[in-house]
Amino acid sequence: xxxxxxxxxxxxxxxxxxxxxxxxxxxxxxxxxxxxxxxxxxxxxxxxxxxxxxxxxxxxxxxxxxxxxxxxxxxxxxxxxxxxxxxxxxxxxxxxxxxxxxxxxxxxxxxxxxxxxxxxxxxxxxxxxxxxxxxxxxxxxxxxxxxxxxxxxxxxxxxxxxxxxxxxxxxxxxxxxxxxxxxxxxxxxxxxxxxxxxxxxxxxxxxxxxxxxxxxxxxxxxxxx
Amino acid sequence: xxxxxxxxxxxxxxxxxxxxxxxxxxxxxxxxxxxxxxxxxxxxxxxxxxxxxxxxxxxxxxxxxxxxxxxxxxxxxxxx
Lengths: 225, 80
What we know:
The complex is a heterodimer of chains A (about 220) and B (about 80).
Chain A: E1 5-9, H1 16-27, E2 32-35, E3 47-50, H2 64-67, H3 70-80, E4 85-88, H4 90-97, E5 104-106, E6 114-122, E7 138-145, E8 149-151, H5 154-162, E9 166-170, E10 181-185, E11 191-194, H6 212-223
Parallel strand pairs in A: 1-2, 1-3, 3-4, 4-11
Antiparallel strand pairs in A: 5-8, 6-7, 6-9, 9-10, 10-11
Chain B: E1 2-9, H1 16-27, E2 40-45, H2 52-63, E3 69-76
Subunit structure (chain B): Part of the FGAM synthase complex composed of 1 PurL, 1 PurQ and 2 PurS subunits.
EC number (chain B): 6.3.5.3
GO biological process, one term (chain B): 'de novo' IMP biosynthetic process
């Protein structure tokens, strides 16, 4: 069975190619490329990726404009049908702005753009996206963002923690995120948003391949399903 | 009709930008600044028959992020 995925490109996306390369390298099939202005997604998708970047120049709020673009209406509908959606960095911001994930991503607490490898702890290894990891595993994944400071009210934080929806947590001081949350799942478990960039860590030659297991786990889970 | 939307961070939401500006004001020697919060204003020109409900809808669907922000709608005197 072939793996049919799509990478959405917004004006200002800049990690869409990295995402496409990672998906092709690991699944063996090149993802379809979808433009933000398209009203429909290709049929029969197994996986949708929202890449990093600065969609619409971060106008208004990071991810705010992209979340209201034509293609996002189709992505929201697909997510509702259970199609897996991965949003990385700006993709995570778009997912929160589209209300597919709880919370919001605010300016980093120290006001600086943070661009380095960080240590993450895998908090929930039972989701589709994290099944390639061990529970509690420590991994190194690069971050590159200005607005990665995760905020949600206390009630929401309690709920997502209680439901095991914190997928990844920073294991070191990073951006001021509440409870060091780096990645969040939706209640159905088919939508993951994360600030760190797994697609930039799929080959040892680029400084590490700890991101590879995310794609391998998800693809294995979907193809064998 | 001219409308000004004031978008501000909800109380309790940390404002790193406001904190940095607060610090800079103190650095310039200004005393007695107790707190700085930075928001955004959106000035719009809308049809005269635009309803309050429609303005609320615009704020809630796009202009403010209700997870972290509040908004206030101010109708400005028509300058004409």
